[in-house]
Amino acid sequence: xxxxxxxxxxxSLTAKIVDARVAQVFNTFKEVLVTSSFGTTSAVLLxxxxxxxxxxxxxxxxxxxHFEQTIAYxxxxxxxxxxxxxxxxxxxxxxxxxxxxxxxxxxxDKCCDINKVEPLDRVKDQYKVWMSGLIGFQNRxxxxxxxMDDDNELIKFYPLIDWNSSLVEEYIESHxxxxxxxxxxxxxxxxxxxxxxxGEDRNGRWSDLSKTECGLHR
Length: 218
What we know:
The protein is α/β, with parallel strands linked by helices. It has one domain (6-195): Rossmann fold, CATH 3.40.50. The chain contains 9 helices and 6 strands, in the order ααβαβαβαααβαββα. The protein has helices at residues 6-14, 18-28, 42-52, 68-81, 92-100, 103-106, 108-124, 140-143, 165-174; strands at 32-35, 57-61, 84-88, 129-131, 148-150, 155-157. It has a 6-stranded mixed beta sheet. It is globular, with a radius of gyration of 17 Å. The chain starts with 5 loop residues before the first helix and ends in a 44-residue tail after the last helix.
């Protein structure tokens, strides 16, 4: 999908506060895909969407390998913000294959494809824009992304991409939002149990590998 005047749009969005960014995209596009991992920074975008577009479907990819604390946090935020969360799950047979072979050890990219990428691919074609809560400080790849981008499949919208950790913490505190329960234990980015350890930013994700992304945001 070609995003006309991408540079002009990004300049316009950069000048706006984050609430206006989110509102502008919802007002401009009818089909907006919103996803959340219910990770350590997720409460910001979820709170914004809950106020600007109440009832908007929010897709959560249930890989079957989440921490119990992530599922509990998801349930808590869903109740607190009255979210309309839709769970996406991998093909049961393929998921069983990843479990039996412990695929995350020998082929983590394939494990992510089966448990994350493919479930989301099943709904992508219903939408024109994909809104997600990526934040630039989390790693070098994310820091290079614009607020709005086009990859010939979906227009990707990252309303928080130019935020830093202080802004995230200030927003969560000022709005009285709960922190992810693993944050205080040293987990600054939380994914599947097998591939997540303690660490700053995303340094605890696939910490023994060169891999930095699951494949959703390549």
